[in-house]
Design a protein that fits this description.
The structure holds 2 protein chains of 2 kinds. In chain A, 78% of the residues lie in helices and 0% in strands. Chain A contains 7 helices and no strands. Chain A starts with a helix and ends with a helix. Chain B has a domain at 1-38. Helix content of chain B is 39%, strand content 0%. Chain B has one helix at 5-37. Chains A and B meet through helix 2, helix 3 and helix 7 of A and helix 1 of B.
């Protein structure tokens, strides 16, 4: 089953690349550098998804003490950190030609960095506490607290004056982007979501095997 | 505005490296787990002697039951000197 999801993710990623480079038109204002959007925006979407899963799994673990929920939270946090790092890196690469700087302490960028560091801390906490049950409990609490950062990241562009543009897709109201760009973005959303499912399933499976072996 | 293809390639290249590295990390870890979970089994090599055609008994046959030992050598009852 995991292999099937992996295969689907690979096919969807290939389709996403075709959409991003072959079908989507060259953006008139930014030129071809705007094609980084098809990588940057799905990455942050997966990061949001991953940390939302950590939140739900952490609550489930604290309420019902299900080992599987703890493993899901752990796996999802790890993949979320991976995609948050990718979001920051690709955003920085996109920022240089469009803003003229690799990095600025803008509200959105700062909040994403805080999110990244908090979940990195979450993973470190898991490794630091020797008692597995206690470590899982502490991590679950941190997983819930850190999730409050997600709306702060998303709405930071509305609440503070920032260099980062407001969302073009994940916002209420009619869209302003051309249909072909939205289609390319949606294909990449699907591809990255499948990749997330594949990574999390594989990682959670490994964690289960490690727990059984211990 | 200039197209800045270098930046586009850098972003996509970095993403490919990061995602492939994570995939390899998972695959390697899975391989290690599978290797550890499997019990060690001797594989017959080229230099190994061929297996005998007739199967031999694995345990030596014992005619009389063995007394439980404490690790000290014990003589047979018939060879022991009578008690004074």
């Amino acid at each position: 089953m995991i292999r099937v999801v992996g295969g689907l993710a690979l096919a969807a990623l290939a389709a996403g690349l075709v959409m991003a480079f072959g079908v989507a038109p060259r953006e008139t204002t930014q030129g071809n550098v705007q094609r980084i959007m098809y990588l940057h925006v799905p990455s942050v979407w997966v990061a949001y998804l991953a940390f939302a899963v950590v939140l739900v799994a952490s609550i489930t673990y604290l309420v019902r003490r299900l080992e599987a929920a703890d493993r899901l939270a752990h796996a999802s946090a790890e993949v979320g950190v991976l995609f948050t790092g990718l979001t920051i890196a690709t955003g920085s690469i996109w920022g240089k030609p469009t803003w003229g700087t690799w990095w600025t302490w803008d509200a959105r960028l700062t909040r994403v960095s805080i999110l990244f560091v908090m979940y990195l801390g979450y993973l470190l906490l898991r490794g630091m506490v020797e008692d597995r049950e206690r470590g899982a409990r502490y991590a679950a609490v941190l997983g819930i607290v850190a999730a409050f950062n997600i709306p702060l990241v998303h709405f930071s562009v509305y609440w503070w004056r920032t260099l980062h543009q407001p969302p073009s897709l994940m916002k209420p109201g009619p869209g302003t982007m051309p249909g072909v760009i939205v289609a390319a973005l949606l294909v990449n959303f699907a591809a990255f979501s499948l990749l997330y499912v594949y990574f999390v399933a594989k990682r959670a499976c490994l964690l289960r095997r490690e727990a059984e072996a211990a | 505005m200039a197209d800045n293809w270098g930046f586009v390639l850098a972003a996509y290249g970095l993403a490919a490296v990061v995602l492939l590295s994570y995939w390899r990390f998972l695959a390697r870890r899975e391989r290690t787990k599978t290797h550890r979970a499997r019990p060690p089994r001797a594989r017959p090599g080229v230099s190994d002697p061929p297996a005998p055609a007739v199967s031999e008994p694995l345990a030596p046959t014992v005619s009389e039951p063995l007394a439980p030992t404490s690790g000290h050598p014990r003589s047979k009852p018939a060879s022991r000197p009578p008690l004074q």
